[in-house]
């Protein structure tokens, strides 16, 4: 019933998309269902020009060809997905759909619980022979909305690093260039979405793990305000961790948020329902928004092409009527990188406590090294870092009270070679500060999204990060939507 990446998903043999019926503005018809967005698929279903079964079969067939080259999906469960797609097809025919994403295929990161699927956390140490009897809240909400959950996407072990590779799964590659990383830890999700292996994906973000792959893969990834999307079981990364959508368009992100942004009794930190319609909020005005542009978060290297593309994106916001100015946040003199590092390593060391010593040799050596480093910190070190975290968060609160939006790069570099933890600087030393931005908003809990803002000369995507005050997820998505409409990234069929 379940198939590994290189095997043929059941029900996919000989499947082709329906013939091209032409495209016109306002009529999102496509000859290749694997490249359609969720919104486009819903329009096709509504008009009877395609069905959920056709869409799923097209994606399964593409996965058979493409996934062995990418290693984006580690589990494909075709038979139940085809049953779900068939049920959705009947609902569309009767006009009894459950939501705007009824029948749309979605993949789930392997750190997120799916009923019946082994949730191995990318680890050889986790026992696969467990009941696996419950869905995580986001997965449950997607099922209730009629979405077709068909695959599990790869992650590094326990999401501990910013590239997607593990002793259990191997290396996940970037569809834009197979010799480059897709980022992490939701690298499988990012690669799957941009490669046409499902238009919707659930990722998790403990220090940038949705936004990093979104930047490297040229898609949209949204880290919600902490607690806006309920999560269970709790992450080893504590209250740094978030669950959120990864898609090709901001509209699809909003469609997913309408479904998954709900409380759940299993998550005591989940926020009360706010009844926001994120799709309707996309069309709100951005004119006269006050926007602060910050190109660097301290003394770190910024790739010139990345800086130039983000500065160009800021000028697009000016053309949209925003008031944009370069700004300098006052973060109270604390070091966000140090604060995050202490929190992260202390959380990662919990993994050592979860397994008996004889299983530690099964862990990824990089996770093992991080965990052992985390064990060196005292409770006083962590309490001091928690106090500095509050100072940092207050600094960003003040910044985002003065500005409606913060614009900055998602990452300081484009995607680098697979097999590395970090790119090299000009002198050949590792650039350990290639990701200096995203973790700030895991610490501060602000909503933050990455949207593609162009390609480097070598054809690699670059992400623009948009952040707003607490609970202003709709504003982040609205700004990203207007920007994406003004400066769309034309993505070829990937991998080429």
UniProtKB/TrEMBL annotation:
GO terms for molecular function: amidase activity. Transmembrane segments: none annotated. Residues 1-14 have a biased composition (Low complexity). The keyword Cell cycle does not apply. The keyword Cell division does not apply. InterPro entries: Amidase, Amidase_dom, AS_sf. Residues 54-477 form the Amidase domain. Residues 1-32 are annotated as: Disordered. Its EC number is 3.5.1.4. It is an enzyme of class 3 (hydrolase). Keywords: Hydrolase. Belongs to the amidase family. This is Amidase. It comes from Vineibacter terrae. The lineage of its organism: Bacteria, Pseudomonadati, Pseudomonadota, Alphaproteobacteria, Hyphomicrobiales.
